[in-house]
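Moderator note: this is an archived Q&A kept for reference. The question asked for a predicted structure of one protein chain; the sequence and the answer are reproduced below.
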Amino acid sequence: MADPELEAIRQRRMQELMAQRGTGSSQNPEQQKAQEEAKREAEEQRQMILSRILTLEARARVARIALVKPEKARGVEDVILRAAQTGQIVEKVSEERLISLLEQINTQTTKETKVTIKRRPSVLDDD
């Protein structure tokens, strides 16, 4: 295989990988910038709504959870936001209520771990 052919294949593969990531030539820089701006604004609005719904202690607890398990904190925030949008939450969520909500979520999503140990038979073992 000649060098120009190899370079063409590399270029095609690089373009495919970049297109899969969403950073390729399929979008111009203005569209990417607009998408990033929309994501940032949505996140700001989300945080603003959460600050109205949660007390300071509850927000601090969610922030501590986010340090250890970001996906779990995001899930708790989603549950709280949905409950607020449907009218289930009419007053600020205290830390105690947040803890009870976390316990409910933990019982629903608890995975049971099962460990199985298989011993390989040894040559020296007598049956």
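Archived answer notes: Helices lie at 3-21, 29-53, 56-68, 70-85, 95-109.
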